[in-house]
Amino acid sequence: MSLAQGAPLLSRLVSSSVAIASQAGHVIREIMKKGDLGIVEKESVRDLQTEADRAAQRCIISSLNKCFPKITIIGEEGEDETKVTSGSIFDPSTTSLVDVACPPHLSSMAEEEVVVWVDPLDGTAEYTQGLLDHVTVLIGIASGGKAIGGVIHQPYYNYQNPGSELGRTIWGIVGGEVGGMKILPPPEGKLIVTTTRSHSSSTVNDAISAVSPDEVLRVGGAGHKVMLLLEGKAHLYVFASPGCKKWDTCAPQAILEAAGGILTDIQGNAIPYDASAPHRNSTGVLASAAGQKHGVYLEQIPQHVKDNLKA
Predict the structure, then answer these.
(1) Would you say 297 and 138 are in contact if contact means Cβ atoms under 8 Å apart?
(2) Which of 128, 159, 220, 299 is the most buried (most CB within 10 A)?
């Protein structure tokens, strides 16, 4: 089934990305089944890449390029994995595509205006360690430098429930709807913060301490952390470090904002997603679930933490 060609570009792009992200999740699971992850180090021993990262990126970028040849795509795994390879192309029209409504103000966008940020496997270290619920596939859609749409696929959703169907895909458009899950509010009367499990530092810890959390969840993957906000398991995502990139935050930000939450850098500034923006989010991330006082938390972050994180 295919969406009508007359449907707005953003509707078609998000709908196709849902199907393509799910296919990338299948690729990731198949490589894990084979047992040879093909691990290589990128920038450090904590910055890993596996064959699943590479194969999932080839699938996503080749498939999106085939459907939307004029969009700009920036993928985590570099230029070698952004080339269109015919064997990696998945045709989303072969599946039952979700119907995604497009807000009127985004309905006339052209392909040339779109930048797509792809993290084919967010939480690679956790993937290699068997922490499979931390793993996500992220496809973020930006226009005018802003995150406007996103897809988060969880390849191993339900993996601890034998016999259950694996995988779940969530999508959202800023100013529109969120699909694929029910958004749940975090518990009242306490503050649960989620943060990094592998990139901690005194600056990160100072920022967390400043908001006085009742509980801190140290987990992997930016996509997974924002999912905790959407699932009502945490109120705030605090990461006062330059350790994440645009492809980590674009899709989660769009979905979180579609759900009524907020994601900024640690200083309260918008994160730019135009094609020429630096890949690194050098001024950190602060994200809050819907209904939380984002501005109040920003004020609690110490000035020395903000001063340590310069663009």
Answers:
(1) no
(2) 220
